[in-house]
Specification:
With 310 residues, this protein is of the alpha/beta class. Helix content is 35%, strand content 25%.
Length: 310
């Protein structure tokens, strides 16, 4: 048995958005200190089981989550599962986390790192695709990184979109539901959906926009079209993971439209000073597929904040 079972409310109480960002920055800068094997996917009825292990010098852990097929369970949380953290010194399991809020935090934290380095300093207008918990978490983290004033929500779940808009208005934002063409007025776009097909025409993006694409992790699925990728200066968490799992890259690579050099940097290189945005007019994209080291880093930090961790 583990010493702790950590749910979403406690996890958010232990780690502020800024702390999550700091922890993830340190993890990506020290990525060589982690082993983060490729995730395993097992097909089950109506969805799949993902197994995501990672190892650091002082701890290791594994996330077990299920996700429904994209056409199921609209309106309920997609990620369901657990994360188990082990202490490296004696191989003892020390904490179990609800995997859903852990995934929300680390994913939004990764987007925030990229946004902080790539979005224009005057970015004020955010477009969210999706209105679920991941979209909500992205709104919270984007507001930490830039002084967001305008929010547009594009979603196939009208009730959830309207609820998110109402909550954003209560925070003082100019918020409304919108159609995909809203990206034409965006400074920052976050795609937080399970869509397997592009959400908007990349020609609609105005120069200078930054895009965080975080919703898909299959080589044949993509939230962004080829036009967006061809226009963009692209950053990924890991080239190996992105070229294996990111449809946004795998599909144009297979078609001969881009080569591996189209990815300008991984997050560690970006944090170390790699120049990606060269002008105010550049379109930049983070394509995230999620890595085990992200879960481990955030879980270790939460456990340390709670109980003097491994």
């Amino acid at each position: 048995m583990t010493d702790a079972v950590v749910g979403g409310d406690e996890l958010r109480g232990l780690l502020s958005p800024r702390r999550v960002i700091e922890v993830l920055e340190a993890a990506f800068l020290g990525a060589s200190d982690y082993a983060s094997p490729a995730r395993s996917a097992v097909q089950v009825r109506d969805g799949e089981l993902l197994v995501m292990p990672a190892v650091s010098s002082s701890a290791f852990g594994v996330k077990l989550v299920t996700l429904p097929h994209a056409d199921r369970d609209v309106g309920v949380p997609r990620v369901k599962g657990v994360y188990v953290l082990f202490r490296g010194s004696d191989l003892r399991p020390v904490a179990t986390f609800d995997a859903a809020p852990l995934t929300l935090l680390r994913t939004a934290g990764v987007s925030a790192i990229a946004t902080d380095r790539l979005a224009r300093s005057d970015a004020r207008r955010l477009v969210l695709f999706g209105a679920g918990e991941q979209a909500r978490e992205h709104l919270r983290f984007m507001c930490e990184i830039r002084p967001i004033e305008v929010l547009r929500v594009v979603s196939r779940a009208p009730a959830r979109a309207q609820a998110l808009v109402a909550d954003a208005r209560a925070l003082g934002l100019d918020a409304a539901c919108a159609e995909p063409r809203a990206v034409a007025e965006a400074d920052i776009v976050c795609t937080c959906t399970s869509s397997a097909t592009p959400l908007f025409d990349g020609a609609w993006l105005r120069p200078g926009t930054h895009v965080n694409a975080i919703g898909t992790y299959h080589p044949t699925a993509r939230e962004l079209d080829e036009r967006t990728i061809l226009r963009a200066r692209v950053v990924v968490e890991s080239r190996a993971a992105a070229f294996a799992e990111a449809g946004e890259l795998c599909l144009p690579l297979a078609a001969g439209l881009i080569d591996a050099s189209h990815v300008r940097a991984d997050l560690g290189e970006l944090l170390a000073g790699a120049l990606v945005r060269e002008t105010q007019e550049d379109v930049t994209v983070l394509k995230s597929v999620g890595l085990g080291l992200e879960d481990l880093a955030v879980a270790q930090a939460a456990y340390a904040a709670r109980a003097g961790g491994p």
